[in-house]
Write a structure and sequence with these properties.
The chain is of the alpha+beta class. Among the domains are: about 180-275, Trypsin-like serine proteases (Thrombin, subunit H), CATH 2.40.10; about 285-375, Pdz3 Domain (Roll), CATH 2.30.42.10. It is about 20% helix and about 40% strand. It has six helices and 22 strands. It has a six-stranded antiparallel barrel. The protein has a six-stranded antiparallel beta barrel with strand order 9-10-11-14-13-12. Strands 16, 17, 18, 19, 20 and 21 form a six-stranded antiparallel β-sheet that branches.
Length: about 375
């Protein structure tokens, strides 16, 4: 075969051009961020890959949080001792039967100290009964001490254990839309159920429970989330993507979907600090209303004053005795304008003590009225 110098030089030149183009393109893309092919090549496939990677990253974060935090999340169960009961006999008359000791999962909680302090909701352990704390590996501990916080729907349980893995408490710097994870014993049956969602709202005021359930708790400044919180999740942790506790799951809105609530971690921190210093909790002033704050924009649009729009009043509460009705708007509290307070009614009430007599300024059906209330203690 004859050697063709012209063809060889042509091939060498083309190879050099291709090499220079490749190197130049890499330099332009990495150093000068010039991407001319982005305008010529369809990138939908690349976008799909990026989206898939983002989903896998989020899934991995949830998996890691669950693995790390699960040893600190517990189930709270109630024990019913063996007892004699009377029942109707199929042959007529009554007969006595022995009912064996029973144990039923009723709520959730989480460990806050290695020597056996567990957080749950006060309403979870409200009965005069014996309770058991069950860890992820099935180990059971008898609750030796129950310390309910009368100011919040919180309780500190003491179990005889050591070398437990406590949770890490986060900061109260949440934003609406922030990703959250909830863990608990859903429906009192499915232990360590994991749900995810976002922070749907902040600074909500709610009443947890009802007079028919045996307890009523006015909670202010709570977190609203769309992470599924079912009966049995009460007392479990609400977590951020770093696995830090940012709230204590407490309630779900009746008759609604994807509306749950959690007590902010800062309230928990204050309760823990107070308990560690004094061994007790202080009662807080209780008005007895569920409300929604009306900001300036909504007030102008609806031609109503700024204030706290009352959605419900707890029967027998200070607000009920004073004559506050659903539909009222509280505009002032003991001479202070609610519009001047960032956290609204909750912030104002926290300035007062149980037994204080206060004047409440309300707007009702186009008229301003003045009512007087004596603040009671939360139970």
């Amino acid at each position: 075969m004859r050697f063709n110098l012209k063809s060889f030089l042509l091939g060498l030149s083309l190879s050099f051009i291709v090499l220079v183009s490749a190197v130049g393109g890499a330099i332009a893309d990495r150093i000068f961020v010039i991407t001319p092919l982005d305008n010529l090549v369809e990138r939908s496939g690349l976008a799909g890959v990026a989206a898939q990677r983002q989903i896998l990253k989020e899934e991995s974060a949830v998996i890691d949080v669950v693995k790390n935090i699960s040893p600190s999340v517990v189930t709270v169960a109630i024990q019913t001792p063996e007892r004699q009961i009377l029942e109707f006999s199929p042959f007529g008359g009554l007969r006595q039967r022995t009912q064996e000791e029973q144990q039923q999962d009723i709520g959730s909680g989480f460990i806050v100290s290695s020597d056996g302090l567990v957080i749950t909701n006060k309403h979870v352990v409200s009965q005069d009964a014996q309770y058991v704390v069950i860890t992820q590996d099935g180990t059971q501990y008898q609750v030796s001490e129950i310390n309910p916080d009368p100011a919040n729907d919180l309780a500190i349980l003491k179990i005889d254990a050591d070398n437990l893995q406590p949770v890490e408490l986060g900061q109260d710097d949440l934003q609406v839309g922030q990703f959250v994870i909830a863990i608990g014993t859903a429906l009192g049956e499915f232990r360590h159920t994991v749900t995810t969602g976002v922070v749907s709202g902040l600074g909500r005021g709610i009443v947890a429970g009802s007079v028919y359930e045996g307890y009523v708790e006015e909670l202010n400044d709570v977190i609203q989330t769309d992470a599924a919180i079912n009966p049995g999740n009460s007392g479990g942790p609400l977590l951020n993507s770093s696995g830090q506790v940012i709230g204590v799951n407490v309630a779900v809105a009746a008759g609604a979907e994807n509306i749950g609530f959690a007590i902010p971690v800062e309230i928990l921190k204050k309760a823990l600090d107070e308990f560690e210093k004094t061994g007790t909790f202080a009662s807080k002033a209780f008005l007895g209303v569920t409300y929604q704050m009306i900001n300036e924009r909504n007030a102008i649009m609806n031609e109503v004053p700024q204030g706290a729009y009352i959605t419900d009043v707890v029967p027998g509460s200070a607000a009920d005795r004073a004559g506050v009705d659903p539909g009222d708007i509280i505009t002032g509290f003991d001479g202070q304008r609610l519009a001047d307070f960032e956290d609204g009614l909750a912030e104002v009430i926290n300035q007062y003590e149980v037994g204080d007599r206060v004047e409440i300024n309300i707007w009702r059906d186009g008229e301003f009225l003045n009512l007087t209330a004596t603040l009671s203690a939360s139970e």
